[in-house]
Write a structure and sequence with these properties.
The complex is a heterotrimer of chains A (392), B (446) and C (367). Chain A is an all-alpha fold and 392 residues long. Chain A is built from 17 helices and four strands. Chain B contains 14 helices and 17 strands. The longest helix of chain B has 20 residues. The chains are: A mainly alpha (392), B alpha/beta (446), C mainly alpha (367).
């Protein structure tokens, strides 16, 4: 037990170090700029939360994007109505997403397996369709909900087109044009925004670690391995599942609010099934059920989406400048299939290769490499504790 | 990016990553402080950001936009045949880049999603140092990216975006649009419809259920109501419905004699194909031939509808068959480089790049506020749409609007649209106040 | 009244298409236990078989066309070989019938593709988790999409129905009830085609020994294996059949929906909903739920029945029970946006009232 705690402390220290020095560590691979690092952190939180449900209980939700969307909308509304300070926005988002998750979870968890997946998918798709069209007065439809300038005296405009920000107005905050989000005066875009997300990521990771190590986490794993047996012993598993569902929904809401914090715009497409599918893929790609895997999966997918898609023929051609011209053209043509507009091909191939050769996701690959170096330590996996747990 | 790839190699050799990394990262952290405005170019080059859909339903349109951008960059840098620079009324650009700086560009994928588009634009601004973002194939994306550019303090030159909101409710000081909008489509198309189909018509709208669709529906309704058209029903269809049959069947019994398809892209291709299959165009209602109208046409997309577009009326921003000097120069330049004619999306993107470059040259700086002032109220000609003006009050470009009809006997697969009328600019001009919104102040960032 | 009949007919037609698209998916679910996210892409591949077949028929001797003077030349006019070989009339007939004729290409190609995918990839995933299956089939789907995009571009490519089937048929006049009951020929053909293919698959599973073994394998794979029957090979064939059915559904759908490389993904979610609402492992459930969802979708697409059935209703009509019923439907059921969410609403309702969908069997994909 004590050993476990020391190891966790060590893990947290390493994790915090890597996250906080990400601007330097990721610079060499072209990812050292605020927006992508923010996205790494935010989608990392999303995937970590998703993993608490899917990784521990095995319940595969295909509608988690709905909570991401709810979180974003709640946060932007908080900016519009109350204050540009991000703290109330984050609280509101997490609460809204938690309540919504309680509702959907209560209904969906009556079924298991693929029936559960389709129920969550159905709820998310309904939310998406309604947000896109009928609920436009709340969501501003396709254009997305945005922060606007304050309503001026004598203007008659709807709340979608002009904000009131009662708390900021009460404290007499001066605004010039459209204001940006702040954390008690510290602006939340750029590097400041990244460090804010990074610290929340570290906290979120820490909570996830605690859940993994707790009796509650053990119970969730028991549900995954054999729910019937638990039911026979007289344990009602539904409340545990519902709490797990709510927690992961709140993580999604938190991620959604951070998306709005770093970039105050909330669109319906965040709730579409493709967005729900993305977090599923992130989690499985990195390694479902492992602590760090979902985070790695999120990073890889966002990296491919942003950096690989930006490599055009011109860049490639310049890059292969050292080759003879004919070869340069040929190599450029070949590689251009996998980058630029072909970045999705790389993504698809990567999914297949990882799942065929590394059943446990990228984390398994990392463990194998580590294992080669530290044969002695191989069994003491720092990222999962399947082996350590029974000792308690 | 090429540099970064090299760095991976270097890094693995050096293996003392952190030190190297921190050395590389340092300038990033402090670079903004010394700038007079966001991404002020200090070296011999200036970077523009081309943000287009490379995946998803509009990937082909995005690819065409990218071709046009590359062509524009070549011409500004003095390569190629110069294209529309030769016909452009302003002759500030000398073929040596902008303000003596060579133009370079970075590209990204919007995926036709606001989030992805903003992320991509942010990368261009934060990592690649772009001073201007342009491109795109959807109004939602354009508005999202325009808002971002305002925040970041760079100029946004909108690509293909047709919703009123881009320069209406959601206009921003840092954003400029060359493309036309639904208001102008309504004003230009309505008189032609009146002449072709008469004044007593009962219209049925099928409208894509999102902002652009509503905007389009509203404009057509507004201008056809003036001479007595009646709207029987306006049905909202979900985006990307694929099969529209369940929305088409009620039309048969509705007593309507005109169907207005407020759809764009793939939705338009599908709904038009299916409406024609339902025999709507062979129908007689109220003693008149049933008609179909597609307010916004795109030649690239119309190819997907095949024979269904023959005889259908619509409007377009530009078509390659135009015979003015500017259009001819552009088509020749584009055609000889790529082997096929440019689309309207390519045209608007090319123009936007040239207009930006010219304004920067005239202002003598890339600072958004000064550059924007140079564009405001700027009158020009020779870019394929006749005499044009960037209106100062809403940053919307005003020009003649083309009303087109699907050609009955096309000469080739490129030759799909026939220009039936060029509606003069005076007829499509409107008071910017009717759309609401305000530009706000320029943001130079930094 | 026609409105209601027409929406019903349209619902049946949509339902037929949904059932056909979902059939292969539920077959693979039920027999192989594989969550196949690449199913939609198989549908898309079938559609592109039709496109390719059309391109093959268009091959011929090229006549160069005049330069446009713009530095590019439009594609040359082509005298297709089929016209040269079979004469103008027959040549035209063959080219115009390219969609139904493309079955000749679709069936062998899709069978081959199905077998290759199953042998080369899917079979390694029978014992893996559903999560792994999702990841690998999704990856496969993206790769296949990108390959199609590379060769055919992202824009939809129009395909025409054969001459004589491209217009619509006046069913109302044919039945002597009214003349606004009009429906496209090709959709009726597609409906008939869907019924034939679905019946054929059912007959194959029900009446052949081969099908019997497959059904037995669906119930208890291990026991069948113990009997000394090579169940693996039969699974390969089942996957091949699923691919062929999806491909046929796609190829024949092209005149209605000009195909593009993403059309499969658009149908993916829908086909999953159809299958799960029908109940896992049940073919008849999938067909039933296809029709149910099709009809629901069609019925909710109308904004007001009362207005359409009684365009100029007199006060007397307004007091009638039928008018009141329609008015009730308009007010209380057809709220704005219902048509966009109806299939999900139905899915939620059915899954909550019937634990395993309409006709699902216990124990299939419940863990």
């Amino acid at each position: 037990m004590l050993l476990q705690e020391r190891k966790d402390l060590f893990l947290m220290a390493i994790f915090s170090f890597v996250v906080l020095s990400a601007p330097i560590l990721f610079q060499p691979i072209g990812a050292g700029y605020p927006d992508l690092l923010q996205k790494f952190a935010i989608y990392g939180i999303f995937a970590i939360g998703f993993n608490i449900l899917f990784g521990l209980t095995g319940y595969l939700s295909f509608g988690h994007a709905a909570f991401l969307g709810i979180g974003s909308y709640a946060a932007v509304w908080s900016f519009k109505l109350f204050t540009m300070n991000v703290v109330p926005a984050i609280f509101l988002s997490v609460i809204a997403a938690g309540l919504f998750a309680a509702l959907i979870g209560f209904v969906s968890l009556r079924r298991s397996g693929i029936y559960f997946s389709i129920l969550t998918l159905a709820f998310a798709q309904m939310s998406y369709s309604l947000a896109y069209s009928v609920l436009t007065p709340i969501t501003n439809g396709e254009t997305g909900l945005q922060v606007r300038a304050l309503l001026k005296e004598g203007q008659t405009r709807g709340l979608l087109d002009a904000d009131i920000r009662v708390i900021d107005s009460f404290f007499g905050v001066e605004e010039f044009g459209i204001p940006i989000t702040n954390f008690f005066g510290l602006k939340m875009s750029g590097w400041e925004g990244f460090y804010f997300c990074a610290i929340i990521l570290i906290i979120a990771f820490f909570i996830s670690l605690k859940i993994f190590r707790s009796d509650f986490g053990l119970m969730l794993r028991a549900i995954k391995s054999n729910q019937n047996r638990l039911n026979y012993t007289g344990i009602n598993t539904r409340p545990y599942l519902l709490v797990a569902f709510m927690i992961s929904g709140m993580y999604a809401g938190l991620a959604g609010s951070l998306l709005a914090v770093t970039d105050p715009l909330a669109g319906a497409e965040r709730m579409q099934w493709t967005a729900s599918g993305e977090v599923v893929l992130m989690t499985i790609l990195g390694g479902a059920g492992t602590l760090i895997g979902p985070l790695i999966g999120a990073g890889i997918i966002k990296y491919l989406e942003q950096i690989f898609s930006s490599i055009n023929n011109y860049v490639l051609f310049t890059f292969f400048d050292f080759l003879p011209v004919e070869l340069q053209v040929l190599v450029t043509k070949l590689t251009s299939l996998f980058v630029g507009e072909g970045w999705e091909l790389t993504l698809g191939l990567m999914f297949m290769i990882v799942v065929v050769f590394l059943p446990g996701g990228v984390v398994e690959g990392i463990n194998r490499i580590m294992g080669l170096f530290h044969k002695r330590k191989r069994k003491e996996d720092t990222t999962t504790n399947h082996k350590a747990q029974p000792a308690e | 990016m090429s540099d970064n790839k090299l760095k991976i190699g270097r890094r693995s050799v050096l293996k003392t990553g952190a030190l190297v990394g921190s050395a590389l990262a340092t300038p990033m952290f402090f670079s903004n402080i010394a700038n007079a405005y966001t991404n002020e170019p200090k070296g011999k080059a200036v970077t523009l950001g081309f943000n287009v859909p490379q995946t998803g339903a509009y990937a082909d349109e995005g690819a065409d936009e990218l071709r046009a951008f590359q062509l524009a960059v070549e011409h500004i840098n003095g390569e190629g045949d110069g294209g529309m620079l030769n016909t452009f009324s302003s002759s500030e650009l000398k073929g040596n880049g902008i303000n003596g700086k060579k133009v370079e560009f970075v590209t990204g994928d919007t995926q036709t999603k606001s989030d992805a588009a903003r992320a991509s634009a942010k990368r261009m601004i934060e990592k690649d140092g772009a001073v201007m973002i342009t491109g795109g194939s959807s109004s939602g994306v354009a508005i999202a990216v325009q808002g971002l550019c305002q925040e970041a303090g760079v100029i946004f030159m909108a690509g293909l975006t047709h919703s009123n909101d881009t320069t209406g409710k959601d206009r921003r000081a840092n954003g400029f649009r060359h493309f036309f909008n639904t208001e102008m489509t309504g004003a230009a198309l309505a008189p032609v419809l009146k002449n072709a189909f008469g004044e007593e018509r009962r219209a049925y709208h099928l409208t894509a259920d999102y902002t652009w669709g509503w905007s389009q529906e509203g404009s057509i309704e507004k201008y056809t109501k003036n001479f007595g058209w009646e709207t029987v029903d306006a049905v909202r269809t979900p985006l990307g419905a694929g099969d529209f049959s369940q929305y088409i069947t009620p039309i048969l019994n509705s007593g309507a004699d005109v169907l207005i398809l407020n759809h764009y892209g793939k939705d338009m291709v599908n709904s038009l194909t299916q409406a024609v299959q339902f025999g709507l165009r062979d129908k007689q209602v109220n003693g008149k031939d049933f008609q179909i109208v597609v307010p916004l046409f795109s030649r690239l997309m119309a190819q997907g509808a095949g024979d269904a577009i023959k005889g259908i009326y619509g409007s377009t921003n530009w078509n390659w068959s135009l015979k003015d000097e500017g259009s001819k120069a552009f088509v020749k330049s584009f055609g000889s480089k790529y082997g096929f004619p440019p689309s309207q999306a390519a045209h608007t993107c090319y123009c936007q790049t040239i207009l930006y470059a010219d304004a920067a040259q005239r202002a003598g700086t890339f600072r958004p506020s000064e550059l924007g002032a140079a564009l405001e109220g700027f009158k020009f000609d020779g870019l394929g749409n006749g005499p044009m003006e960037y209106r100062a009050s809403d940053h919307q470009c005003f020009k003649d609007v083309l009303v087109v009809q699907g050609k009955e006997k096309p000469d080739s697969k490129f030759d799909l649209l026939e220009v039936v009328e060029v509606t003069p600019r005076s007829q499509v001009e409107y008071d910017d106040k009717i759309l609401g919104g305000e530009l706000g102040p320029y943001n130079d960032g930094a | 009244m026609d409105v209601i009949l027409l929406q019903l007919l349209n619902g049946l037609d949509k339902g037929g298409a949904y059932a056909l698209i979902a059939l292969g998916l539920t077959l693979v679910f039920g027999t192989l236990g594989i969550v196949n996210f690449a199913h939609g892409v198989l549908f898309m591949l079938g559609a592109f078989c039709a496109v390719t077949f059309n391109k093959i028929l268009q091959l011929g001797i090229e006549k160069p066309v005049a330069d446009t003077g713009f530095g590019f030349t439009p594609p040359p006019e082509v005298m297709p070989y089929v016209k040269i070989w079979f004469g103008e009339t027959w040549g035209d007939f063959i080219i115009s019938s390219s969609v139904p004729l493309s079955i000749l290409l679709t069936v062998p190609f899709m069978l081959l593709a199905g077998i290759v995918i199953e042998r080369g990839l899917i079979r390694f995933f029978y014992k893996r988790t559903h999560a792994a299956q999702i990841l690998v089939t999704f990856g496969l789907a993206i790769v296949l999409q990108e390959i199609v995009k590379h060769y055919y571009g992202a824009n939809p490519i129009p395909q025409t129905a054969p001459d004589g089937f491209s217009g619509s048929v006046n069913i109302g006049a044919f039945l002597g009830i009214s003349d606004t009951l009009v429906y496209p020929w090709w959709r009726l053909v597609y409906f008939g085609f869907a019924i034939i293919v679905i019946s054929a698959v059912f007959a194959f599973l029900q009446f052949t020994t081969y099908g019997m073994v497959v059904r037995a394998g669906m119930n208890d794979r291990e026991t069948v294996g113990l009997l000394g029957i090579n169940i693996e090979r039969r699974f390969t064939v089942v996957f091949g059949i699923a691919a062929v059915v999806a491909g046929l559904a796609g190829a024949m759908y092209t005149p209605t929906l000009p195909p593009d490389y993403r059309m499969g993904m658009d149908f993916l979610v829908l086909s999953f909903v159809v299958v799960v609402v029908g109940g896992m492992g049940s073919l008849s459930g999938a067909v039933l739920s296809g029709f149910l969802l099709g009809i629901m979708q069609s019925f909710t697409a109308v904004s007001s029945y009362a207005l359409l059935v009684f365009p100029n209703a007199s006060e007397e009509v307004r007091q009638g029970a039928f008018f009141k019923l329609l008015d009730f439907v308009d007010t209380w059921i057809l709220f704005p946006g219902i048509d966009q969410i109806i299939i999900y609403l139905v899915a939620v309702f059915i899954l909550l009232t019937l634990p395993r969908g309409l006709m699902g069997r216990a124990g299939v994909m419940e863990d």
